[in-house]
Amino acid sequence: MTIFQQMTICACGLGLASLLGSTIGLAVKKIPHRGNDIFLGFCAGMMLAASLVCLIVPAVEMAGVRGWWQPLVGVALGVGLIALLDRVTPHLHHLTGIEHEEPHGTHNRSINRILLFVIAIAIHKFPEGLATGVVFDGSNMGNAYTVAITIALQNIPEGMVVVTPLLLIGVRYARVILVSISIALLEVAGVFTGYFIGDISSVYLPCITALAGGAMLYVISDEMIPETHSHGYEKPATYALVAGVMCMLYINMLV
Fold first, then answer.
1. Calpha distance 98→117 (Å, rounded)
2. Rg (CA), the chain
3. Neighbours of 222 (CB within 10 A)
4. Mean pLDDT on 16-45
5. Are 189 and 126 in contact (CB under 8 A)?
6. For a 10 Å CB count at each end of the chain, is N or C smaller?
7. How far apart are CA 106 and CA 249, in angstroms?
8. Residue 67 gets which letter from DSSP?
9. Distance between CA 24 and CA 195 in Å, rounded?
10. How buried is residue 10: exposed, middle or buried, by Cβ count under 10 Å (0-12/13-18/19+)?
11. Which residues are within 8 A (CB) of 175 and not within 5 positions of it... i.e. 6 or more apart?
12. For residue 35, which phi and psi values (nearest 5 degrees)?
């Protein structure tokens, strides 16, 4: 099986994991904040370890002493890119109404806000796919599989968290399903984009890999951790984050 075929399978797996979470969210309809924060905390821990161990550290090793600037530039570009996207698009909780519910049907009457919601999700999903695709360069398939497994695992609870607020504010099932499919496809597109960008030249691979790692670090710090600490369940969310870090380290050792 070629590297491209393996990458394609992983890309489909990420998309299916996201859709699985959305399907569960459609069935459950409401996730208690405590469970949601614990899930996201665990996922944030896994992503934190993956961004460092599977992306940034390998980028530093690939660059070597002479190319020390590449990982620094890559992380800075990744953080800057997502910060820029985050600045020009609305935050997830402002659109979903998860904290402040609006009158029933308000968002049904605004297709533009649904589109903005998809863009906001892209801030999270596209870099995740990019982080997966860029490491499928054949140099270390263990890292590639580790990143893919980590993101696939966190896609399930994240898919649930994305769907339920839309249902609560009255968005129809058909539109929620379309949003879920769009989100999954965005991540799959990110995987292919990362793969082809990373294949352009191995000279720039440390910078590109670090860019994906920096993007993940921004999402973890700016979105995931604050979300898990905003409902009064900071302690269990923190414990879950530590457990996620340790789980990711063992997965990286075994893969």
1. 13
2. 18
3. 16
4. 83
5. yes
6. N
7. 44
8. T
9. 30
10. buried
11. 108, 114, 166
12. -65, -40
Q: What band does 30 get if pLDDT is binned at 50, 70 and 90?
A: low
Q: Decide: residue 204, CB within 10 A, 0-12 exposed, 13-18 middle, 19+ buried.
A: middle
The region that residue 29 occupies, defined by phi over 0 for left and psi between -120 and 50 for alpha, beta otherwise, is: left
Would you call 176 helix, strand, or coil by DSSP? Answer: helix
Residues 68-87 have pLDDT tens digits of 999 999 999 989 987 887 67
Per-residue tokens: 136: 């499928």
Cα 193 from Cα 208, distance rounded (Å): 11
Amino acid of residue 125: K
For 211, the 3-state DSSP assignment is: helix
Amino acid at 140: N
- Residue 28: which of 191, 162, 144, 121 has the closest Cα? 162
| Domain boundary assignment for the chain | 3-254
Q: How far apart are CA 30 and CA 34, in angstroms?
A: 12
68: which DSSP letter?
Answer: T
Residues written for the chain: 255
DSSP string for 12-34: HHHHHHHHHHHHHHHHH----HH
**Measured between alpha carbons, how far is residue 205 from residues 56, 74, 139, 195, 241 in Å?**
11, 10, 11, 11, 29
Residue 122 has pLDDT above 70, yes or no: no
Q: Which two tokens stand for residue 220?
A: 């973890």
